[in-house]
Write a structure and sequence with these properties.
With 151 residues, the chain is of the alpha/beta class. It is 24% helix and 38% strand. The protein has a single domain, classed as D-tyrosyl-trna(Tyr) Deacylase, Chain: A (3-Layer(bba) Sandwich), CATH 3.50.80.10. The strands form 2 sheets. Strands 1, 2, 3, 6, 7 and 8 form a 6-stranded mixed sheet that branches. A two-stranded antiparallel sheet has the order 4-5.
Length: 151
């Protein structure tokens, strides 16, 4: 399981020209689910995302996590993170989990994050939809985190 984590000033998701989710300052996570991922990977990656210290403290050092700052979380499913790009000029997706498994684990990730961050501070994309994601990356600060086999 992979999460592309970005510290953002704001971010939002549109589907069919309509905004479905929006956050102000916090973290945007593009979440990729790979074959073999399960509940252990969900728990591990969620813990990493929520506790990863990517926000500045009073001295300007990245010492604070999303939980420390009380910021918002936007989680967007992105199967292309599971792509095999090791050869050729076209990605392969044999590493990606089957859609029904990926959707279930994506929803589990959201369910695990909600009590920690607060229900109103956790927003989501729409699984399987053609989404337009708008964001203002703060820094820019972007990290690839992984759990399980893809580490």
């Amino acid at each position: 399981m992979k999460g592309l984590v970005q510290r953002v000033l704001k971010a939002g998701v549109e589907v069919d020209g309509r905004e479905i989710s929006r956050i102000d300052a916090g973290v945007l996570v593009f979440l990729g689910v790979e074959r073999g991922d399960g509940q252990n990977e969900v728990r591990e990656l969620c813990r990493k995302v929520l506790s990863y210290r990517i926000f500045p403290d009073g001295a300007g050092r990245m010492n604070l996590s999303l939980l420390d700052t009380g910021g918002a979380l936007l989680v967007v499913p992105q199967f292309t993170l599971a792509a095999d790009t090791s050869s050729g000029t076209r990605p392969g997706f044999s590493r990606a989990a089957a859609p029904e498994v990926a959707k279930s684990l994506y929803l589990d990730f959201l369910d695990l994050a909600r009590p920690a961050v607060g229900n109103k501070n956790v927003k989501e994309g729409r699984f399987g939809a053609d989404m337009k994601v708008n964001l203002v990356n703060d820094g820019p600060v972007t990290f690839m985190l992984s759990a399980g086999q893809g580490q």
